[in-house]
Here is the input.
Amino acid sequence: LDKDGLDLIYTIGSKHNLQEVKGWAIQKTFKSSMQHAGSEIDYRYKTNMKETLEKIFDSYTDTSKKMTLIVLTDGLWEGCVNSNDVEKLIASFITKLKPRLKKWESRWFSIQFVSFGDNEQALGRLQKLDDNMPIEEDVIDTKPWWHHDVSKLILGSMTAGDDKDEPLSPSPLSRPGTSASFHQLSTPERSPSTGKHHRFSFLRR
Here is the structure.
């Protein structure tokens, strides 16, 4: 994990955002933040994922470190003006970033979408971001939260092998007692060891 810690950012409101949470505090601190944020959700507000990503992209100024953005989302993003706003923004950012890096190494900035919900149009949008982006470099991966290999929910966008399509585990609808568990993603011993030069940020819809 990044020695500087993990960040947690919400698409609506910043009261419960976290920065540079480290080590064994990650699971407890992230869980507490998400519980408090969840209790205050006002569903009248609609997510504009484009605006949130713009702020994150603007803040990526230290390009000496790799960056992986893990987005926990239902993919609805009803606050966006156009259905392809996020697609166009990511394509523009990645295209302009490459010359700034002055290196051939791929996936320096990657984005992992972890999908929740069952809205077909929203899930189709996320899959399109994974499979049909108008950019040369494949830096995006999308997997459902119930994917059978938790590590690939993080590594999927970082390595080509983990980004490949593969048979999925059964839907949670066919597995009684299964429930979403974000703390599985934030437990240090289950997260990948990528060294001190790779930064992670979690973004929650």
